Amino acid sequence: MHIRPERPADIPGIRTVSLTAFETSTEADLVDALREQADPIISLVAEDSGAIVGHILLSPVTLTAHPELRIVGLAPMAVVPARQRQGIGSALIHKGLERCRRLGFGAVIVLGHAEYYPRFGFTAASRFGLRCEYDVPEDVFMVLELDEGILKGKSGTIHYHPAFANV
Q1: Where are the alpha helices (DSSP H) in the chain?
Q2: What dihedral angle (degrees, nearest 10) is formed by the CA atoms of 131, 132, 133, 134?
Q3: Are 90 and 112 in contact (CB under 8 A)?
Q4: Is the dihedral of CA 41, 46, 52, 54 positive or negative?
Q5: What is the DSSP string of 58-90?
Q6: Rounded Cα distance, 61 and 74, in Å
Q7: Which pLDDT does position 40 carry in this prediction?
Q8: pLDDT 10s digits, 35-88
Q9: CA 61 to chain CA mean position, Å
Q10: pTM (2 decimals)?
Q11: Which end of the chain has fewer CB atoms < 10 Å from its terminal CB, N or C?
């Protein structure tokens, strides 16, 4: 398995991954919308024997009152069901976080499984005084500081790219 940046030829395979990994087309539609509307995005695929078996997308978010901070949101991340629980999602997250660091992002937020994301260093965003613009349980809205201390004293509401509200 190889993890690499998305290429134009990967778009149908990425859509298939999202359609098979999630119950509805919402995430697949979101990926397409973010690809067209958000800048910058980080879009990586997990490829095995020429097939796309996983995908991760990270796109810019903003923190109210601190728009100068470079923060991205991890969403969505998907692995085809037949290949789940084989480390593909973990590998995608590690590569995605590595790419974020290299590009100078200070933090990554995620709205996801409270048991899964802490293994990568994510912690409750409320610990930093961060709130999600959506009404979600506190334990599923998490953040990882890539630049330690960047969020100190910078509380507020995280706003996702408008594409999130339009799918």
Answers
A1: 11-21, 26-37, 88-102
A2: -130
A3: no
A4: negative
A5: EEEEEETT-TTS-EEEEEEEEE-GGGTTSSHHH
A6: 10
A7: 87
A8: 999 988 999 999 999 999 999 999 999 999 999 999 999 999 999 999 999 999
A9: 10
A10: 0.95
A11: N
The helix/strand/coil state of 46 is: strand
At 97, the amino acid letter reads L
DSSP state of 146: S
Which SS3 state, helix, strand or coil, does residue 150 take? coil
Tokens of 121: 């260093």
Q: What's the rounded mean pLDDT across residues 100-108?
A: 97
- Structure-block tokens of residue 19: 């359609």
Average pLDDT, the chain: 96
Residue 147 confidence (pLDDT): 96
Domain at 34, CATH number:
3.40.630.30
* Locus of tokens 């965003």: 125
- The dihedral region occupied by 3, where left means phi > 0, alpha psi between -120 and 50, and beta the remainder, is beta
Please tell me the total count of domains within the chain: 1
CB neighbour list of residue 7: distance below 8 Å, 6 or more residues apart: none
Domain that holds residue 46: 2-166
